[in-house]
Amino acid sequence: MERDPIFTRGVLLALAEMYLQGQDAAHPKASPLYARLYEDKDRQEETIWANALDWTIVRPAVLNDKPARGRIRALTDLSGVHGGTIARADVADFVVQQLTADTWLRKAPLITW
User: Fold this and answer.
1) How far apart are CA 45 and CA 106, in angstroms?
2) Most confident option among 5-14, 25-34, 81-90
3) Closest listed residue to residue 38, CA positions, set 59, 15, 54, 69
């Protein structure tokens, strides 16, 4: 009997690290309010990166409630990327696809429109 992919693969939905709009602080970690949250996120990701299991960390852009477009950009090179949005439905579809796909194994793509 073949095991369900959801039990053989770990999928983590993580917050994308985004620049704060309209502020001089270069990164959310510069804010004391967010510093602890990002420290926790970094610690969690370090644990995942070191794990021998199959995993994908999904970093969605700013989530919205718009209808799914059915097409997204998945990026690991974030040079030139400043923000962006994506529908929750498109994120859900991407996560489900990763349960059986090998394209993004052991990677952490930012997904956006």
Assistant:
1) 11
2) 81-90
3) 15
